[in-house]
Amino acid sequence: MASSLYDRLGGLDAIKAVVDDFVALCAADDRINQKFARTDIPRLKKMLVDQLCEATGGPCTYIGRDMKETHRGLGVTAGEFDALVANLVATLNKFNVPQAEQEELLGALAPMKADIVEVDSAATATPLPASYQAAPPLP
Length: 139
Ligand code: HEM
Known about the structure:
The chain has helices at residues 5-9, 11-27, 41-55, 67-71, 78-94, 99-109, 113-116. The chain is mainly α. It is globular. The protein starts with a helix and ends in a 23-residue tail after the last helix. Bound molecules: protoporphyrin IX containing FE. Protoporphyrin IX containing FE (HEM) is lined by residues 32, 35-36, 38-39, 43-44, 47-48, 51, 64-65, 70-71, 74, 76, 80-81, 84, 109, 112, 116, 134-135.
């Protein structure tokens, strides 16, 4: 049996390292970082680790909000979505994740785009709507 994408990526430690690097790139990226101005970053990192672990066949359970609810009212554009994915690819390249595994991971995330993008525009650096309610920190 072929091993899971989770195992081929290197398991939980590798996924945590990828998420740390990816979140740092997004935080430094003026095309998208305004959206995270009120976000609890420790929560975001934990949710991303659990989501990636579960989606790749690892032993985690994602307990966060679903993608539609999480991103509703953020006003994310298609251009901002592409910018975020480019940051993820930069991180995967930095960690020498092979092309096949990259494609498999991006393929697992691609169907989420429809639930995340609200504005069909190539614009980036659009503001965080004042009405957006950020999730509370984890206990
Ligand atoms: C495939 C792409 C994406 C995935 C898999 C993803 C996944 C997630 C996850 C798991 C959370 C945490 C949910 C929770 O805390 O309950 C989250 C939160 C968030 N995402 Fe995304 N996301 C994606 C794309 C984007 C894009 C393109 C943007 C904006 C540029 C964005 C902005 C945010 C923000 C601001 C939060 C924090 C919301 C808060 O403060 O409560 N996401 N995302």
